[in-house]
């Protein structure tokens, strides 16, 4: 159910999970929020299927 909307968002620009959740909620007028329990497993399925590629960003450290 979430695959196509997620792919549509990621076609426009790379996003992290939190941003995907917010964008989907905003697109529906804030009346619906995707749960992280649904979002992240869907992202993993899309990655295993080769539809998306994830990256890991290192956090900046204080000097």
Structural account:
This protein is 54% helix and 0% strand. The chain is mostly helical and 63 residues long. It has one domain (3-48). The longest helix has 13 residues, at 36-48. The protein is globular and about 40 Å long. The model has no long low-confidence stretch (mean pLDDT 90).
Q: How many domains, in number, for the residues? A: 1
Strand count:
0
* Strand coverage percent: under 5%
Q: Portion of residues in helices?
A: 40-55%
Structural class: mainly alpha
Q: How do the helices and strands follow one another from N- to C-terminus?
A: HHH
Radius of gyration: 13 Å
Q: Number of DSSP helices?
A: 3
- How far is the N terminus from the C terminus? 44 Å
- Average pLDDT for all residues: 90
Which spans of ≥5 residues are poorly predicted at pLDDT below 50?
none
Q: How would you describe the shape? A: globular
């Amino acid at each position: 159910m979430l695959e196509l909307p997620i792919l549509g968002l990621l076609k426009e620009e790379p996003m992290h999970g939190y941003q995907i959740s917010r964008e989907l909620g905003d697109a529906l007028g804030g009346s619906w929020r995707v749960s992280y329990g649904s979002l992240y497993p869907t992202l993993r399925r899309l990655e295993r299927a080769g539809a998306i590629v994830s990256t890991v960003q290192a956090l900046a450290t204080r000097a």
